[in-house]
Write a structure and sequence with these properties.
One of its GO terms (cellular component) is membrane. It is found in: Membrane. Its main location: membrane. This is Membrane cofactor protein. Helices cover 0% and strands 41% of the residues. By secondary structure, the protein is mainly β. It has 4 domains: 15-68, Ribbon (Complement Module, domain 1); 81-131, Complement Module, domain 1 (Ribbon); 134-196, Ribbon (Complement Module, domain 1); 199-257, Complement Module, domain 1 (Ribbon). It has strands at 15-17, 30-35, 39-41, 50-53, 59-60, 67-69, 81-85, 92-97, 101-104, 108-113, 120-122, 128-131, 133-134, 143-145, 153-154, 158-163, 173-175, 179-184, 187-188, 194-196, 199-200, 208-212, 218-219, 223-228, 232-235, 239-243, 247-249, 254-257. Strands 1-2-4-5 form a 4-stranded antiparallel beta sheet, with no helix packed on it. A 4-stranded antiparallel beta sheet has the order 7-8-10-11, with no helix packed on it. The protein has a 4-stranded antiparallel beta sheet with strand order 14-16-18-19, with no helix packed on it. It has no helices and 28 strands. A hairpin with a 6-residue loop joins β10 (108-113) and β11.
Length: 258
């Protein structure tokens, strides 16, 4: 019996040996290759697909890859969006939507082996690009917003809140964002503001005086600046602001002798 000459069956990315021969094999042993799952023969076929074991342990003829990746069905651009990538087995297609549209479904499809284990197919259904729309934002107490008669708002559309005139002794202040923008499906750029009375106590400063921001009442965002009388120095902040919790920020400073 001849000694075994070839202790390895050549391996290829796109092809596999028919019948799964087990090395070592004797001289003269022929191996025929077929395409791996997900691959097809290159057409027209000019490359050999059979090779023979020689006595010196080499194979002839030396083979080149004779198969190429199968392609999944061509994908069409989604309406109001785009798809990028390649359609070959093992690759992926990435979907995105134009500004003002929202992607519904899976953004990435993979070209993979189909259920039969040989053909290739996309991993799912292509997504769709839906126009971004917003339901009206929330109504607020003591306030209104622009275009409140509309039942739907488009992408980038703006509503502006304002406060109603107060029926009591103090006016309403708008606390928060007055402009809301439709930025995503039923998504506004921020929460609606509040319309409420914000009133800070009268900012008296012993041994000092108010130099700007005089008023009878101090409402939201009112600013006051102080200075101390001669012979006194100021401890704290020269400027204070009336904030939403009805308090001065930072706190009212002090005038210290010396």
């Amino acid at each position: 019996s001849c000694p075994d000459a070839c202790d390895e069956i050549p391996r290829y990315e796109s092809m596999k040996a028919k019948g799964n021969p087990v090395p070592p094999v004797s001289p003269g042993f022929a191996v025929e290759y077929e395409c791996r799952p997900g691959y097809r023969l290159i057409v027209p076929l000019v490359r050999p697909t059979t090779t023979v074991c020689l006595a010196d342990g080499t194979w002839a003829p030396p083979l080149q890859e004779a198969c190429t990746r199968k392609s999944c069905p061509q994908l069409t651009e989604p309406l109001n969006g785009r798809v990028e990538g390649s359609f070959q087995f093992g690759s992926q297609a990435n979907y995105s939507c134009n500004e003002g549209y929202n992607l519904v479904g899976t953004p990435v499809l993979h070209c993979q082996l189909a259920g039969d284990g040989n053909n290739v197919a996309w991993s799912g259904d292509p997504p769709q690009c839906e126009k971004i729309l917003c339901q009206p934002p929330k109504q607020i107490e003591n306030g209104i917003f622009s275009n409140s008669h509309k039942d739907i708002f488009e992408y980038n559309e703006v509503v502006t809140y304002s406060c109603k005139p107060s029926t009591g002794p103090d006016e309403y202040s708008l606390v928060g964002e007055s402009r809301l923008i439709c930025t995503g499906p039923n998504k506004w750029s921020s929460n609606p503001p509040e319309c409420k009375v914000v009133k800070c106590p009268y900012p008296s400063l012993p041994d000092g005086t108010i130099v700007s921001g005089f008023g009878k009442k101090y409402y939201y965002k009112a600013e006051v600046q102080f200075e101390c009388n001669q012979g006194y120095s100021l401890e704290g902040s020269r400027k204070i602001v009336c904030e939403a919790n009805n308090a001065w920020v930072p706190e009212i400073p002090r005038c210290v002798k010396g």
